[in-house]
Amino acid sequence: MNNTENKVIFAGAGPGDPELMTIKSMRALESADLIIYAGSLVPEAVLCWKGSDTETISSAGMNLDQIINRIKASHDLGKRVVRLHTGDPSLYGAIFEQIRELQKLSIPYEVLPGVTAAFAAASSMGMEYTLPEVTQTLILTRISGRTPVPESEDLERLAAHGSSMAIYLSMGHVKKVQGILENHYGKESLCAIAYKVSHPEEQIFYTQIQDLVKTCEKNKITRHALIIVGKAVEASRGNKELIQSKLYDAGFSHGYRNASKK
């Protein structure tokens, strides 16, 4: 097999529901000889799309060298390899360090995007992150922990914007998160805890920011969850004090429609 034709595929598994995987990623699984999946995050249900003879390996107990060595060994034999990451590979997927090693080995690769948990959560919540003249910015971030965050991207600084925000990988520091969000969004503002979004066990908990820690403790949520905050959350729960989008306003003209005259 021509080396340039046999690309290692980094595929987005989506948030958990096998049907939220892209068709392109699904086809990659169907044709793969080997799938190395992030077993600590990617549910095995997503592997339903693999071929009957496809070998699957969880990378949960593997380090970078072991992953790359396994990819190289299979690629050298002309096998089709898929590296399956949760959500979208470009977001907290740690794919760059893997890609860098493949480049050193002159192994071609391709990245297939996926649905990240923040968007699956918004779907379940019936929520739009960007509300006309209310909030037009969505921040996807995490709090600093074992993996440091640049000082300029500290949660305290980002929260000062007051925009819609989805906070990943931060349940182990939820007390600190609560304190920061109280300072910038207000103790009585509503936030959401999106647990195992799109999985069969999915739950969305709404709570005032001042009760964030208490809600997590009550429901024993310590991982696999997002914290979502901002005016969009309150709007999804029935806050009617919103400015309507001009896109569908009868009195607003744009390139496809003239304003109606009263």
Give a brief outline of the structure.
With 262 residues, this protein is of the alpha/beta class. Helix content is 27%, strand content 19%. The chain has helices at 23-31, 64-76, 95-104, 117-125, 155-159, 174-185, 212-218, 231-236; strands spanning 8-12, 34-37, 55-58, 81-85, 109-112, 138-142, 164-168, 190-195, 203-208, 225-229.
Description:
With 262 residues, this protein is α/β, with parallel strands linked by helices. It has 8 helices and 10 strands. Helix content is 27%, strand content 19%. The strands form 2 sheets. Strands 3-2-4-1-5 form a 5-stranded parallel sheet, sandwiched between helices. It is elongated. The termini are far apart. The model has no long low-confidence stretch (mean pLDDT 91).
What is the approximate shape?
Answer: elongated
Helix content: 25-40%
Give the helix/strand class. Answer: alpha/beta
Strand arrangement in the largest pleated sheet: 3-2-4-1-5
Distance between the termini: 68 Å
Give the percentage of residues in beta strands. 15-25%
Output the radius of gyration.
21 Å
Largest sheet: 5 strands, parallel
Contiguous runs where pLDDT drops below 50 for at least 5 residues? none
Topology as H/E string?
EHEEHEHEHEHEHEEHEH
pLDDT averaged residue by residue: 91
Layout of helices and strands:
Elements: E1 8-12, H1 23-31, E2 34-37, E3 55-58, H2 64-76, E4 81-85, H3 95-104, E5 109-112, H4 117-125, E6 138-142, H5 155-159, E7 164-168, H6 174-185, E8 190-195, E9 203-208, H7 212-218, E10 225-229, H8 231-236
Parallel strand pairs: 1-4, 1-5, 2-3, 2-4, 6-7
Antiparallel strand pairs: 7-10, 8-9, 8-10
Helix pairs in contact: 2-3
